[in-house]
Specification:
Length: about 200
């Protein structure tokens, strides 16, 4: 049986917080592979991210040293809003030959408040079991019909408090960012004049 984690997001830009979450969940649950899938656009965000091809290129640079990780460009190529349920169905129909293989949805605790707004979320969490990296979790504080499914995937990890918006702001001001973003990604940002 193969265990595969799906880590999605706008990755504008990808940073050590994303990578730490993915690595922590991969190690805690013995995942064979982590697929990193940049969204073309998030239906729940009001801001528009950088060009998708740049974000995909930065993801590929960030994960170069992680041999069990791979980038997926499907959401970028298909155009339109990026819904995780569509990506999960695509992966299950194209990359999962063995019925015993399991797909997991890798999430940070910061996404829990909006999870109930995701498209077809109950079916999504049936198809891809959620694994949620949390610093701490109190079952009675998360009130939702999804609480039982979420509680089963809670994984206590250290959480790196890094936000992409803070990184973009620091880059605009010319401030140091190597403690937030892999050096190769920063080189790419400088080379292409992003942010």
């Amino acid at each position: 049986m193969k265990k595969v984690g799906l880590l999605g997001g706008t990755f504008d830009p990808i940073h050590f917080g994303h990578m730490h979450l993915g690595i922590s969940l991969q190690e805690a649950h013995n995942l064979d592979t982590v697929i990193v899938c940049p969204a073309l656009s998030s239906p729940l965000k009001t801001t528009h991210p950088r060009d998708a091809e740049h974000r995909l290129a930065m993801v590929k640079l960030a994960i170069e040293g992680l041999p069990t990780w791979e980038a997926l460009d499907w959401e970028i190529k298909r155009k339109g809003p990026s819904y995780t349920i569509d990506t999960v169905r695509y992966l299950l129909s194209t990359k999962f030959n063995n019925k015993k293989d399991q797909l997991y949805l890798l999430l940070g605790e910061d996404l829990l408040p909006e999870l109930s707004q995701w498209r077809e979320v109950e079916q999504l969490l049936d198809l891809a079991k959620p694994l949620i990296g949390c610093r701490r979790f109190e079952r009675n504080t998360f009130k939702s019909p999804l609480a039982e499914k979420v509680a089963m995937g809670i994984t206590l990890t250290k959480v790196l408090e890094i936000s992409a918006s803070e990184i973009r702001s620091r880059l605009k001001k010319g401030l140091y960012c190597e403690h937030f973003v892999p050096a190769k990604v920063l080189d790419y940002i400088k080379e292409h004049g992003l942010y």
